[in-house]
Design goal:
Elements lengths: L1 H19 L24 E8 L8 H14 L1 H4 L2 E3 L7 E14 L6 E14 L4 E15 L12 H21 L2
Helix pairs in contact: 2-4
């Protein structure tokens, strides 16, 4: 019995000596800085305007505008900014232009496709001050098709809605967080 007590005491002393008492102090760890945010001071509402100047005109500008408005409004509790369709009620204007739309089959998957959509966007205050700009940003999206969409997969409403929502979410995130 005394051997077990000595062994327990030796183990406790070893743990204290090796770990708890004699290790150097750990360096202070700073939390990472918060992501950079767009300075939206004085902006409470944004009017969203979308045009499609691509040759194919596959994405509907009105659907994309609605998706961008939804993405902005989903973050309004953090930003304090809401988006609307009415121009006269807005403090700023977000103008989005779809420059090109292409799709290519995925090389590794017979039922997959990569959509490549290039957009340009500017956010301008009502007074004309430029707040944010993105010029010809390419957004590639890969999508696994569950059915055979021979020809143009964007003719399918669910595929088009998915691409529109992905594009709007990425655009709003880059605008608000600077990425």
């Amino acid at each position: 019995m005394i051997e077990k007590k000595l062994l327990t005491l030796a183990c406790a002393a070893g743990i204290l000596a090796c770990g708890a008492c004699f290790l150097p102090t750990l360096p202070d760890r700073q939390p990472p800085p918060p992501p950079a945010r767009l300075a939206l001071a004085g902006i409470q509402s944004i009017w969203v305007s979308v045009t499609n100047t691509s040759e194919s005109h596959r994405l509907d500008p009105r659907d994309l505008a609605q998706a961008v408005i939804k993405s902005i409004n989903e973050q309004s509790h953090e930003t304090g900014v809401s988006a609307y369709e009415q121009r006269d009620a807005a403090d700023a204007v977000l103008e989005v232009t779809v420059v090109s739309e292409t799709e290519k089959p995925l090389p590794s998957n017979n039922k997959g496709v990569v959509f490549e959509i290039t957009i340009s966007a500017t956010l301008t205050r009502k007074e004309g001050d430029l707040m944010w700009r993105e010029t010809e940003a390419l957004d590639p999206f890969s999508y696994s098709l569950t059915s055979d969409y021979s020809g143009n997969p964007l003719q399918n409403a669910s595929v088009r809605a998915w691409v529109t929502n992905m594009l709007s979410t990425r655009l709003v995130y880059r605008m608000l967080h600077g990425r």
